[in-house]
Amino acid sequence: MKYEIKYKKNIKIGGAAAAPSNNSDSYNYKEEFKNGKPNLDNPKIGIVINRSHGGFRLSDYAKKKLGVQNEYDIDRFNPALVRLVEEYRKQRKIRDGPRTPNINTDSSSLDVEYIPSAYYQGPHTDNSYEQRNYYKINEYDGFESIELDNERYEIDQIAKASERREEGLIRLLSMMNEIIFNENPELTSEKKIEKLKFFFPPGEIDSDKLIENLDYIPGIGAAFLEAQDNFTKVQADESKD
């Protein structure tokens, strides 16, 4: 049972800024390269790997486009790098019309692989072939491929869910205890019972649903208090006008 709460609008979600348009000419590669963070709101994110025997290398044109001196400290997840590779490969498929200059060297062939955003663990620069928790870049004679460890991810998610449930139960008991043993004389037994009813949504009682509902308990739930505070601030601002 979620309570209807109004929040402030225009909350900015984290992640790299979206490209201004589909037109590659209007995309500022250098600026976006500096931002350097993939948009984790997307279900999958791109990572650049090399598809030829020779190793991960960028042409002088590509390095100038991104505003970098060398490729060794480049984050493989950088959205500007991912876009540059995608645009180049897209242009390669066009038979007629101008093509973009080569982003590869004589010994590299860059490509983009997509992995679940949940597998992301920060920039992938140094120690490129080091095992990450949920993925690894395999390399043979410079040729690279992505290997996902889905089993490990699922095991970790189960463990985290169990940990969150345990924390939720502790929080549930603490919040109920706060009401039951409150010595405020104005909080009569009847009022305590009315407050405790909010912990039990209508229908079949389920401990997971009780935990899910905690943030919305009137008067003490975190989400309720935040919404109440926002509402008070909005009222104060309106009264000034």
Describe the structure.
The protein has 241 residues and is α+β, with helices and mostly antiparallel strands. It folds into 2 domains: 125 residues, no CATH class; 84 residues, no CATH class. Helix content is 38%, strand content 11%. The strands form 2 sheets. Strands 1-2 form a two-stranded antiparallel ribbon. A hairpin with a 2-residue loop joins strand 3 and strand 4. The protein is elongated and about 80 Å long.
Distance between the termini: 36 Å
In terms of per-residue confidence, which ranges show pLDDT below 50 for 5 or more consecutive residues? 1-22
Question: What would the average pLDDT be, to the nearest integer?
Answer: 81
Percentage of residues in strands: 5-15%
Largest sheet: 2 strands, antiparallel
Radius of gyration: 26 Å
Structural class assignment = alpha+beta
Strand order of the largest sheet: 1-2
Which range best describes the helical content: under 10%, 10-25%, 25-40%, 40-55%, 55-70% or over 70%? 25-40%
Number of strands: 4
Total count of helical runs of at least 4 residues: 7
Count of all domains: 2
Order of helices and strands: HEHHEEEHHHH
